[in-house]
Fold this sequence. Notes:
Chain A is α+β, with helices and mostly antiparallel strands. Chain A has 4 helices and 8 strands. In chain A, strand 6 and strand 7 form a beta hairpin. Chain A is globular, with a radius of gyration of 14 Å. Chain B is α+β, with helices and mostly antiparallel strands. Chain B contains 5 helices and 5 strands, in the order H-H-H-H-E-E-E-E-E-H. A 5-stranded antiparallel beta sheet of chain B has the order 1-2-3-4-5. In chain B, a hairpin with a 3-residue loop joins strand 3 and strand 4. Chain B is globular, with a radius of gyration of 17 Å. At the A-B interface, helix 4 of A face strand 1, strand 2, strand 3, strand 4 and strand 5 of B.
Amino acid sequence: MSDSFLQKVDPQERISRYLLLQKSFDAKAQIVFAQAFKPPRPKPESPVRQTSVYRTQGVEENEIWELGDRYVTALHPKHWPVLGRADLTAKDVFDANLTIVPNPDPHPRHADIEGWPSQDEEIEMKITYLARKALLAIRS
Amino acid sequence: MSQAVARTTERIWASNTGLSQESKQLFRVMKGTRIHANEPLSLGWKRDLYYRAIEIGQECAQADWDGYGGAAITPEAVTRTLELIAELPEMLQPPHLVPSPEGYISLQWHDQERRIVSVSPKEDRLVWAAVLSDDDTQYGKAPLWKGWPQALNEILLAHFSNVRFFFAKS
């Protein structure tokens, strides 16, 4: 994996948010709920609001799920399985005036959506916008 | 559930609330009474949503229900959601109910054109956002005790109504 991949996020790149909760989506209606993108409130140990995502452009479908198993489920405190994912393009995130910051821990393809505003209603608007753009992929 | 059979004049409901806590409390009680008095005998989709909200409250009653340290959804948070559902016009499509890691239950409407309205009843205020197209986004907040904001009501009725109005060209 080249350094340019690590540093530069191309607007056309696919960005995937793994979904571990049935309550984050409606498979029948093919809907991802806005709450799936909600960044946790800042804490002393993580003062910046971040939504964890993976940069999955060019990765085979089965490898994307494998990435979820090895770096999301395995590291999850309760080891909940990945049930699906919300796919966006990086452009969708940029259009919401958010940024994608590569964060190669625990994997080089890991990144965080950052630049969240401080006002609740503005966050609500941005997560709703991302939900509009997201395509739901269900694990078969 | 009991059904109040009441006939009241609108004049009783029309008074504005004062600023004290007692006035706000009185306003909420009157509002609840008005909603209850106007409820149809058949609750339609609202009954399902009431049950769903209570179910989510039970499933998410403990902190860390999402495995990432999510705040517990308290009975008070469930009650806030129930009150909002009760105030919704019958002619609207039912929303999805979605628990938030911040300890409340959001109401969300989606349609096939990917219009989305998300409404979150937090402790003291209602936070909402409507994304009707890529270029048409609206959002706002309002004190919770005031109920559904007018701007939000208009958006919901315009885009998520079960009733469609057609006007014939003359």
